Amino acid sequence: MPKETTTEDVPIVKQKNTDEAVEAGLARLTPERIKTTINQVLENETGPKFKAYVETCMHCGLCAEACLYFLSNDRDPSYSPAGKVKQTIWEMLEKKGDVSTDFLRRAVHIAHTECNVCKRCSMYCPFGIDIAYLMLMVRRICHKLEITPLYIQDTVNSHSATMNQMWVKEDEWIDTLQWQEEDAREEFENLRIPLDKVGADIMYSVIAPEPKFQAGLIYQAATIMHAAGIDWTMPSSPGWDNSNMAMFTGDNEISGRIARAFYETAARLKVKRIVMGECGHAFRSIYDVGNRWVGWAMPPFEVVHAIEFYHQLLTSGRITIADKYKKTVTLHDPCNVSRGRGLHDMAREVTNMVCDSFIEMTPNREHNYCCGAGGGVINCGPPYKGERMINNRVKAEQLKATGAEVLIAPCHNCHSGLEDIVHHYDLNMEVKFLGDIIFETMEKKIFNPGD
Amino acid sequence: MNAFIAFIMGPMVWIAFLIFILGLIFKLVVIIKDVNARESYVYSYLSVKYSLRSIFAWLIPFFPQSTRQSPVFYAISYIFHLLLFIVPVFLMSHIVLVNEAFQLSWFALDDTLADILTVIVVLALVFFAVRRQTVPEVKYLTSFNDYVLLIIVALPFITGFLAYHQFFFYRQMVIAHVISGELVLILIPFSKFSHMVMAPLTRAYMGSEFGNVRHAKDW
Amino acid sequence: MEESKSFDWSTDLKEVPVREWKDRFVWVEEPYVSQDGETIASIVNVEEAVFTVCENGKTWDSEYEKAWCLRPIPDGQFAACVSSDEEWTVSISGNEWENRFDFIWNFQMNHDGTHISLAVQKDSEYGMVVNDDPWDRMYENINEMVLSDTGNSAAVVQVSSMAAADIEAFKQGVFSCAVNGKAIEKNFLNIWDISFDTSGENVAYGVRTDRTSYSIAVNDSPWDTSFQSVWKPLFLPGDTSVIAPVKTGGKWMLYKDNQPFWKTPYNQLWKLAISPETGKIAAIVSNDFGKWTVAENDVSWDLSIDQMIFDIVYSADGSTLVAVFKDKECWTLAVNQKKWDLAADKVFDPCVSPDGSIVCVVIEKKGQYFLVVNNHIIPTGFDFMTTPVISPDSTKILQKAVKNGVYQRQILSLDKIL
User: Fold this and answer.
1) Looking at the complex, does the CB of residue C106 fall below 8 Å from at least one CB of chain A?
2) Is ipTM strictly over 0.85?
3) With a CB-CB cutoff of 8 Å, which residues 20-49 of chain B face chain C?
4) I want to staple C252 with a disulfide (CB 3.0 to 4.6 A). Which of A341, B68, C32, C266 is the partner?
5) Are A311 and A351 a contacting pair, CB within 8 Å?
């Protein structure tokens, strides 16, 4: 079969897409509202940190090397991290908020679809300037101007009304858990997904796309929990979803409300720890961002990402591997749990415990390239998908160089984004979660401490 | 004219140093007050250990990944920043002046070496200017002000070099040298030169966030 | 809480063996204990897709395809959500309600157990049912269900349709607060945290009126002022005045009826508690980022908590205020500003005597459950324990615990344990 597109001959499309929400929002704006809103955010919602970042940047351009958008777009300087700041924040400051709707159309496009707020650039800036923070400030302005892209705004609307990302109705959530529980009795006849079990050791939490589209992941998680003999529970009430797109649109008020609902659910269930599925942004939301807005400096509960949890289960012998996975695998480091939580070495250990042949990709660990989907970029939806493919050519090249058959992506956003990349660049790789492989290779027997 | 020269050679030196030091102190006080008032959460994450870890990691030549990816720039930049202090502080003629005023003295560079180092500083500045013109991602960010900064730094070195060699207008060169040196000192707290104190602060904060919260390296 | 005077306070120990249940059934789910402590019950699986409830070793007469959400209700009875032939209803000790639904959830009960409410879905329409009496009108979606002490029900309902990703419709406001099934004719972008007043006739709730404006609404009227954010409002006892934490100028303030009420601006302010007896108002607050305390009538406790204050509870006479919190990785309590010496892995809901003199709570430490009374840990550990009851005269505690496969209902005399 002839290859339609390869890493070499992808056409560079300079078209910057927009969508109806952005356009309708822009059409409603008046110069006064633009100016007032920008100045309100820049004056009242920023402080010395913002000032220091803007004043200290020496325009040296070293951050460029960090950015997948810059690298994938043939080093086009407008895609460099500081280049994006120049096109947004600098001009807003320079013009004291007096910017046009054309400027804002470009700004919303940059902040929402040309930056994954992955913070790789902060590791390349000699001064450690947090450029992602500046991009999020642009998103905050866009949020207040009501020009946030359509699909991600819809997820925020859903969060605000239902406390989950995908308009999952309360009965659908419980019904899905009960359905997965029944199905998973294929594995163990007495398997349960205990709902609202007050005093359980662990609250297991997922993101809304799991009950909506990937209920099988709940089945797998329940099987692993049951086999490992974990005292666990899942809430039947809102607060079960640990995802948070509001933190990526700058809707801090909704973001904080989500975090509060989440942690109060854990507190109501009197659990010791919270374990979450393989999602990166959700981890960032509950571990690093949402909690701060309400005033929890650090999460009030220990939050264990799936990578760390699998590591605990495997090293403690609660889960044993019957037969290691045979295909060659490579591992992607999701920014929010590697650069965001330092779990990259643990992820490698888990991979090696369950897979026969692991091929490292380069760069890796904290320095791995972003999937191009995270930070709410994939959530901006279909209008921007084509650009997203072009904007992450460098990832495709990196993956291709490994020659691995399977790509492990322990994060939902990464997983979806990389599936798109693999398909677009015809990389002929299977994208899997760590949990998929553990589920496939584990011994389906219940842990007995005496064994 | 003599009164003017006496002023810039005498009180103005004091004034320049005072503005330089008090200006930086003032800047730090403003930042701390501002942080206390508006971003006191910063203290919840700031850690001496991780601040220093990050700052030191970034002081080791070619230790951070970023420095290895742009080795020429970093090499020149390291040398440039070192010389920016070494040359004026250890220059024999400067030490002599200090000695006359305060009877203090310390190790001095050999004049010829100092001469060569001065040329290196100027060449480094030329390199930065050329880089601003030729590297697209840098050119994209560069504004007129960035060149002005380069010129302002270059001036005391160029004028000092010319004065030392007494090629022409010796007297004027010395005056220009003193004035431009004072100008640099005065501008440090109020221009991008303040990265001298700001960069360690931003580095410290990012280092703390990475060390304390993210449990990851930031280099 | 049920009238505890009628409970048996004189028999020191009653036991029910529960371990053998595991042999009788395929599996036994987590136990629940009746309020009087006389009965312990679990949902049990009899065989594939056959569930019932086992109470003190006796199963209900009825069996179901599915059962969940077992809860004790007054008179030593239990209720559960049960399903047969893909229809759901409530079963009270084996006797089902007449109404059947496609799904039911969110079990709630008023303080004396005379009213039980659930959220229901039938034919993809949503509403509530109270004591087997469903709402007349059903809606496209439902959230934030509440039950008043007088048996009125309210929830946030979606009153008009919205296509997928229709953010323009959302912007117009498609949500309303429905009381007893009747939607108030005022829509908002969002509605959260509905509170009833003492009479159960009036509701107050937090609303979002546009992308960035929040306010408090009472029945159908939002306050005139808009805020940066709001948390759950409360009616003052026996009054129609409403207090609510609101965020304004970047700080949280306590407002009353649209006017500033407390003077102090806080970094955070939420979870109000009001003593009907004394009129004192308490809230969980944060003065400095990451540090929590309790404020009573706008005066902060001399206590700084670094993780989370989960709840605050007044004694009936208002003399005692108990806070449940996690500090330095351990859960503990504070009673009237005084921190207890507990360092528990889990602290369950505290129980406070009406006069405030006795505070007891169940904790879990290293996998064992203990009863703690007035900061005194009773050293006997249990495998499981549920919320105790303090006798009406505050001299005894009814402890409900399981040890070595036996449920023990014990009456502890406070003069012996303290």
Assistant:
1) yes
2) yes
3) 40-41, 43-44
4) C266
5) no
* Cβ–Cβ < 8 Å for B205, A128: yes
**Closest CA in chain A for residue B206:** A128
Ramachandran angles phi, psi of B206, nearest 5°? -65, -40
Cα–Cα distance for residue pair C55/C76, rounded to 1 Å = 10
Burial of A246 (0-12, 13-18, 19+ CB in 10 A): buried
Of A445, A410, A408, A405, the C-alpha closest to A428 is A405
Q: What is the pLDDT of residues A298-327, one digit of tens each?
A: 999 999 999 999 999 999 999 999 999 999
pLDDT digits (tens, 9 = 90+) for C226-255: 999 999 999 999 999 999 999 999 999 999
With beta carbons less than 8 A apart as the criterion, state whether A119 and A339 touch: yes
10 Å CB burial of residue C15 (0-12, 13-18, 19+) is exposed
Helix A131-145 and helix A31-44, axial crossing angle in degrees, nearest 10: 140
The chains found to touch A (3+ Cβ pairs under 8 angstroms) are: B, C
CB atoms under 10 Å from CB of C221, counted, come to 11
Whether B70 contacts chain C with CB within 8 A: no
In one letter, which amino acid is A397? E
Query: In whole angstroms, what separates CA A172 from the centre of its chain?
Result: 24
Query: Phi and psi at residue A182, in whole multiples of 5°?
Result: -65, -45
| Domains defined for chain C, CATH in brackets | 4-302 (2.120.10)
Angle between helix axes B195-208 and A48-56 (nearest 10 degrees) is: 120
Asked if residue A84 lies in contact with residue A114, where contact means CB atoms within 8 angstroms, the answer is: yes
Interface of A with B in 49-88 (CB under 8 A): 49, 51-53, 55-56, 58-62, 64-66, 70, 75, 77-78, 80, 82-83, 86
Residue in chain C closest to A264 (alpha carbons) equals C310
Q: In this complex, which chains have at least 3 CB pairs below 8 Å with chain C?
A: A, B
- Domains of chain A, with CATH numbers? 20-148 (1.10.1060), 163-313 (no CATH), 320-441 (3.40.50)
The answer to whether the CB of A249 falls within 8 A of the CB of A143 is yes
Q: How far apart are CA A423 and CA C311, in angstroms?
A: 50
**Residue C289: helix, strand or coil by DSSP?**
coil
Secondary structure percentages of chain C, helix, strand, coil, to 5 = 5, 55, 40
Q: Is A368 an interface residue toward B (CB < 8 Å)? A: no
Which among A112, A202, A110 has a CA at the least distance from the CA of A150? A112
Angstrom distances, CA of residue A307 to CA of A231, A277, A408, C301: 19, 9, 12, 40
pLDDT digits 0-9 by tens, B65-78: 999 999 999 999 99
Q: Which residues of A touch B207 (CB under 8 A)?
A: 128
What's the rounded Cα separation, in Å, for the pair A304 and A273? Answer: 7
Chain A / chain B CB contacts < 8 angstroms = 130
Q: Concatenated DSSP letters for A211-223?
A: HHH-HHHHHHHHH
- Report the predicted TM-score, pTM, of the whole model to 2 decimal places: 0.96
